[in-house]
Amino acid sequence: MTQQEISRHILSVLVEDIDGIISRVSAMFTRRSFNLVSLVSGKTETNGINRITIVVDADEVNIEQITKQLNKLIPVLKVVRLEEDTTIARALMLVKVSADASNRPQVVDAANIFRARVVDVAPDSVVIEATGTKGKLTALLEVLEPFGIRELISSGQIALNRGPKTMAPSNR
């Protein structure tokens, strides 16, 4: 028997907007010893329904098990595994960079190259907001590193399918 290859998967989960739903979803991962890379929840276009984007590293057997277990949770309306080639996925990053009058123009230029925005300026630092793929955010950090990273926070990914296809909840 050969061991299956572990890869990164994005699951989009529609749930009823009820208290404790995030705890129930994360508890399912804990009980089954599945490792979450990120979990992001937010409102959808439909009142009373939230979308949870889950990023997990798993093999094919485990990702199937995760999908089945999520579908068993009562407030879960729909679970869709998003495919990399048909998905738009982005994360948000805020990074505080050392910048004084002498090097601030170079820091701002670096942010502009990556289509990031300067959202705060202090005498000795700037805060930059960037969105994009993990690769883009990593590349931005590599460019900013020589200036000095003071603080950094990054969100998990959110994702949607490309094109006109939507993820309307199926009737239970």
Automatic annotation (TrEMBL):
Domain ACT: 10-84
GO cellular component: cytosol
EC number(s) from the headed UniProt entry: 2.2.1.6
Any GO molecular function: acetolactate synthase regulator activity
Entries under PANTHER family matching the protein: ACETOLACTATE SYNTHASE SMALL SUBUNIT, ACETOLACTATE SYNTHASE SMALL SUBUNIT 1, CHLOROPLASTIC
Job of this protein: Catalyzes the conversion of 2 pyruvate molecules into acetolactate in the first common step of the biosynthetic pathway of the branched-amino acids such as leucine, isoleucine, and valine.
Name of the molecule in the record: Acetolactate synthase small subunit
Provenance organism: Corynebacterium vitaeruminis DSM 20294
Gene behind the chain: ilvH
